[in-house]
Amino acid sequence: MALAVLIYEDNALLRESVESMLKMDDSFEVCGSFDNVLQVAEQVRHHEPGLILMDIDMPGRSGIEAVSEVRAFDASLPIIMLTVFDDNAHVLDAIRAGASGYLLKKHISSRLFDSINEVLEGGAPMSPSVARMVIGSMQQLSDNPYQLTPREKEVLTSLSKGNSYKLIASEFDISIDTVRAHIKKIYEKLHVHSQTEAVSKAINEKLV
Contact at 8 Å (CB) between 5 and 29? Predict the structure, then answer.
């Protein structure tokens, strides 16, 4: 049975080119081809595709937003992003949103079927530069799971030493109100409600 594919690409020539390539292979059936993602949820539910090819930069609404919307009701549908650049933040944002991998538009003619096969086998097609970005992002998240800013980490460290708000303000040459604002954000990020909880969590989880 042919694999149903949905295509989202605002460049008409490229969209038609991808359609033609897929139609030349009996393994695939293009069940829909669109120049925007404004109705993506309805279209995906209606066509029930086995694969989506999604342009990142789309008019009116980005492919990244579309991926997030699809992921809200289908966590496993393979979605390959189509992009001009392999090193911009949009690619990383797309992967964070739930994209399965991505394909450079300049490589579509030579890499389309390899990328599709890779993603259908559970892989994640992407270039080495984007793989490095993904790994770097994961390492950063591992090192800083609560996403504390550098200043928030400094304030938390000072707080853990038993310093008062006044001492912290003096140490970093900021106002006491600014210290309070930082500590409020720290409490929110750590999901705690007091200085004792914050310090205990910071020490136990080696945040400071």
Answer: yes
- Examine the domain organization and report whether 28 and 88 are in the same domain: yes
3-state DSSP assignment of residue 82:
strand
Query: What's the whole-model pTM score?
Result: 0.68
Given a contact cutoff of 8 angstroms between Cβ atoms, the answer to whether 162 and 152 are in contact is no
Q: Which 3 state secondary structure label does DSSP give 96?
A: helix
| Residue 189 structural domain | 150-204
193 with 169: CB under 8 angstroms?
Answer: no
Cβ atoms of 2 and 92 closer than 8 Å: no
Instruction: For residue 72, give both structure tokens.
Output: 């809200």
What residues contact 160, with CB distance under 8 A and at least 6 apart?
Answer: 199, 202, 203, 208
Q: Which of 111, 123, 118 is nearest to 21 (CA)?
A: 111
pLDDT digits (tens, 9 = 90+) for 144-173: 778 888 899 899 999 998 899 999 999 999
Last residue of a domain, one of 80, 99, 131: 131
